[in-house]
Amino acid sequence: MNQNNAIIISLDNKNSEIIELASSLNYKIVKTFVQKRLKPNVKSYIGAGKVEEIKDFIDENNTIKLVIVNGNLKPSQWFILEKKFSLEVYDRLRLILAIFEERAERKEAKLQVKLAQLEYERPFVRELIHRTRSGEHPGFMAGGEYQVDDYYEMIKKQMKKIKESLKNIREDREIRRRNRHESGFYLISLAGYTNAGKSSLLNMLSGEKVKVEGRLFSTLSTTTRRIINKDVPILLTDTVGFIENLPSYVINAFHSTLEEIKVADVILLVVDVSEEIKIILKKLKVSLDELIEIGVNSPIIVIFNKIDLISQKKLKEKINQLKKHNLVNNKKLVFISIKNKINIEKLLKFIHDSLPRLVIFKIKMPINKETQSLISWIYKKSNVLDISYDNFVIVLIQCDSIIREKIVSRCKELKGIVVN
Predict the structure, then answer these.
(1) What is the tally of helices (H) and strands (E) in the chain?
(2) Sign of CA dihedral 251, 260, 192, 224
(3) CA nearest to 281, candidates 312, 326, 246
(4) By the number of CB atoms within 10 A of the CB, which of 33, 105, 278, 355 ranks highest?
(5) CB 190 within 8 A of CB 268
(6) Is the CB of residue 301 less than 8 Å from the CB of residue 351?
């Protein structure tokens, strides 16, 4: 697929992520214009001289299809830049939302993305209304033909309709979660910065082949699979990746998806440990801040993936740096390689040890067909620590309190007892 050419405008040299975001939308960055300043120019984000320099470059290079600003534009700044360059101008958030739109496949994800886009567009459309009434020609977002004030009213109606649809989806999801818990399943959520390797870990632990792509935001919808585990039954859910500086309305749009993280029994926070320490620090802090924002109270296991790509010495140095910044203190840490299947059993043990409300008890039942049927069910819903047959069958079980109540009730129906 042919790439479209684009340029970047930035206030500093930290542009690796915005370049990666642009690449995710199949844009090739042909030039980056940096004007170092602490705050954006109030009128046009960058100074008038830099605006003219960029305009000259665009005029000389007619292959440029998009201008990307590595920051967040005010509506007035956006209007001025689009009018000056005669090209579409995306700020960082609009670029991310465009990626979301391309990646969204399921109904819920599409609704969440659309809601976030409409919320983003509202102040820009208000700006267009103001400019139009002042006699200025609307920019590219308006489309030019129709009245922007009609479009603004349409945005409000559409947002209300989408919120109602998402509310219904959220209620359905809550019913499914409740049923899973009542069926004895523990719920574990994968979290982390976008493109950290969460989907690969889901495949590793579940034995499934969920599509894995080496690009940002390849997962927008939740994907739930059962962990291959001889012990307790566990459902593992992959969720949308985190990224820095998303406004609250975008996070709120994905509320029903992110709620999978909030209600999980254990959180697996995946980190690519092969990256530079300053990048790890940033991404880990963003991820932990997002978990706090969501309202997570469950145990968090920090998983450092790709240890096969660095030396033990480098790994130790990086962990020491993270501890100095108080990012991983008082958290369980596990160092793995999904590619080489290193320390996966250790990770499973960490998960098992972090599960809440596990109780151990013993039941004694007569041996018959109904008993064998119950034992098969117990194996599926709990961790059978020991089983022995004589004149009776005695089963030592580890499970949560909800499943214990069901087992004990069924045991008594079959003339069995709980052994102290």
Answers:
(1) 14, 14
(2) negative
(3) 326
(4) 355
(5) yes
(6) yes
What pTM did the predictor assign?
Answer: 0.70
Q: Are strands 223-226 and 64-69 parallel, antiparallel or unpaired?
A: unpaired
C-alpha 92/C-alpha 244 separation (Å) is 11
> 203 — phi, psi (to 5°)?
-65, -40
Rounded Cα distance between 126 and 115, Å, is 17
Please write the tens of the pLDDT for every residue from 59-92: 998 899 999 999 999 999 999 999 999 999 999 9
Q: Are residues 328 and 364 in the same domain?
A: no
Shared domain check, 233 and 347: yes
- Please give the Cα distance from 113 to 94 (Å, whole number): 11
> What are 93's strand-pairing partners?
none
Measure the CA–CA gap between 191 and 242, rounded to whole angstroms: 8
Task: Pick from 79-93, 98-112, 147-161, 192-206 the range whose average pLDDT is largest.
Answer: 79-93
Distances 87 to 20, 32, 55, 62 between C-alpha atoms, Å: 21, 16, 10, 11
Structure tokens at 259: 């709620």
Q: Looking at the structure, tell me whether residues 281 and 392 fall in a common domain.
A: no
| CATH number, residue 377 | 3.30.70.600
Q: Which residue has the tokens 């915005």?
A: 18
Whether 244 has a pLDDT exceeding 60, the answer reads yes
Q: What is the CATH number of the domain that holds 70?
A: 3.40.50.11060
User: What is the DSSP secondary-structure string of 48-65?
Assistant: HHHHHHHHHHHHH-TTEE
Task: Mark whether 189 and 305 lie in a shared domain.
Answer: yes
Place of tokens 């309305």: 249
The pLDDT assigned to 142 comes to: 45
Q: Does a structural domain hold residue 139? A: no
Q: Which residue from 222, 214, 197, 194 is spatially nearest to 336, judged by alpha carbons?
A: 197
The answer to whether the CB of 199 falls within 8 A of the CB of 212 is: yes
Is 144's pLDDT higher than 50? no
Please state, rounded to an integer, the average pLDDT across all residues of the chain: 85
N-to-C CA span, the chain: 68
- In angstroms, the CA 152 to CA 313 distance is 57
Is residue 213 very low, low, confident or very high in pLDDT (cuts 50, 70, 90)? low
Domain count across the chain: 4
Q: Tell me, what amino acid is at 368?
A: N
Residue span of the structural domain in which 112 resides: 107-126+144-164
Share of the chain above pLDDT 70, in %: 89
Task: Let me know whether 235 and 214 are in one domain.
Answer: yes
